[in-house]
């Protein structure tokens, strides 16, 4: 039995411990579930899709898992204890605990919005890592709207989105139930696209171009009931986007944010920021927010492995929770002002990578403006 070669799994030394942990979690997951697939593992365990793909291949080469067609099963051995067989549950398949993402049944209204969104996104701007874009799946955007609806956060509400590469504003607009929907984003292509579709479909959605690290939409302060944001998962970016959202809300309101990305170790920083800002977390739904598959991030060798492991169905890159919190008069709405040093740290890992090598950027590769 060979060992797992983490050098071919990770893309940065800092990821080594995380993917060792992911390895153990996959083995545990396969102990609980007799068979699984690549996408089920990405959807339910942890790690970024392409690193998990390479890790699974290493596990296959090490004889820890068997791949029959697209079905993955534990071959009963653990690399850490090669002489000890992994015990499968008696019935092999513990259906009582088998996770299946969030079972959130969408009604007819939302199914029809998914179809409309699928047509709309065909002409959307290609996501760019220069602005750390990583859109969620269409299903996730529409599920978000349905979730707001189920919590009484949609009908007649004034809703603002701080960054919207996910196009959730358009999914919200298509319900025709919110009073007003406003988007702030740095990406001019995205702002123009949202305004164009809004005009064509007569939606109450308006997008404005802002670099939120430099200018704040202060004329909109205190004007909204609900805000949604999905910042880059680092402390500086999270606090900036949350603080702007809080500032834009009226005295009472509700915020939505996604965090705990499954491609990085969990950090207390995010919940600390929410607590320091004196907002009350009311809901945290696990495995809700699924980020879309971006083929341009795959190397040639990864694409070959994908052919081997691809089990079909909706693809994803990683997932996060969906968090709802309530904002009251005592919440801290002061906008976080960035120092020059913080402005440099604002950008995410993907942005740093494309600044060093622009050819890794999906939009750059497609010659997008
Ligand atoms: C920061 S990205 C995060 C993407 C992804 N949802 C995630 O969690 O990694 C979210 C949105 O913020 C926008 N954005 C990035 N930098 C910005 C800035 N300085 N000012 C305004 N919007 C920005 C992007 O264009 C994108 O639409």
Structure overview:
The longest helix is centred in the first third of the chain and has 17 residues, at 16-32. It is built from 13 helices and 12 strands. 36% of the residues lie in helices and 19% in strands. The chain has 2 domains: 6-88, Arc Repressor Mutant, subunit A, CATH 1.10.10; 109-292 and 317-365, Vaccinia Virus protein VP39 (Rossmann fold), CATH 3.40.50.150. The chain is α/β, with parallel strands linked by helices. Bound molecules: S-adenosylmethionine (SAM). The site of S-adenosylmethionine has 19 residues, from loops.
Mean pLDDT: 91
The stretches of 5 or more residues where confidence is low (pLDDT under 50) are 88-101
- How much β-strand is present in the residues? 15-25%
In quaternary terms, these chains amount to: single chain
> Strands of the largest sheet, in order across it?
8-7-6-9-10-12-11
Largest sheet: 7 strands, mixed
Apparent shape: globular
Give the distinct bound molecules.
S-adenosylmethionine
Looking at CATH, which topology of the largest domain would you report?
Answer: Rossmann fold
Q: Structural class from helices and strands? A: alpha/beta
């Amino acid at each position: 039995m060979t060992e797992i070669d983490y050098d071919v799994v990770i893309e940065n030394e800092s990821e080594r411990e995380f993917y060792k942990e992911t390895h153990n979690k996959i083995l545990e997951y396969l102990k609980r579930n007799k068979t699984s697939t690549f996408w089920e593992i990405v959807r339910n365990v942890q790690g970024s899709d392409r690193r998990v793909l390479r890790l699974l291949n290493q596990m296959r080469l090490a004889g820890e898992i068997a791949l029959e067609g697209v079905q993955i099963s534990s071959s009963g051995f653990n690399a850490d204890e090669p002489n000890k067989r992994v015990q499968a549950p008696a019935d092999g398949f513990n259906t009582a605990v088998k996770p299946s993402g969030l079972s959130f049944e969408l009604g007819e209204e939302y199914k029809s919005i998914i179809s409309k969104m699928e047509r709309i996104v065909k002409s959307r701007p290609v996501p760019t890592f220069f602005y750390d874009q990583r859109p969620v799946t269409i299903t996730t955007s529409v599920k978000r709207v349905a979730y707001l609806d189920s919590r009484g956060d949609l009908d007649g509400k004034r809703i603002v989105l701080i960054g919207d590469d996910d196009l959730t504003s358009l999914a919200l607009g298509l319900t025709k139930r919110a009073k007003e929907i406003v988007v702030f984003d740095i990406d001019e292509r995205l702002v123009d696209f949202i305004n164009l579709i809004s005009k064509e479909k007569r939606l109450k959605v308006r997008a404005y171009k802002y670099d939120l690290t430099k200018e704040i939409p202060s004329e909109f302060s205190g004007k909204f009931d609900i805000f949604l944001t999905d910042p880059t998962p680092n402390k500086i970016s999270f606090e900036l986007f949350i603080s702007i959202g809080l500032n834009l809300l009226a005295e009472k309101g509700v915020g939505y944010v996604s965090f705990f990305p499954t491609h990085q170790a969990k950090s207390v920083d995010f919940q600390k920021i929410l607590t320091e800002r004196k907002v009350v977390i009311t809901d945290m739904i696990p495995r809700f927010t699924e980020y879309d598959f971006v083929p341009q991030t795959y190397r040639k060798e990864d694409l070959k492995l994908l052919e081997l492991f691809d089990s079909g169905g909706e693809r994803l890159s990683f997932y996060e929770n969906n968090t709802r919190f309530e904002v009251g008069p005592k919440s801290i709405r002061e906008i976080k002002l960035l120092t020059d040093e913080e402005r440099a740290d604002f950008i995410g890992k993907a942005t740093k990578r494309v600044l060093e090598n622009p050819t890794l950027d999906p939009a750059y590769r497609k010659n997008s403006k």
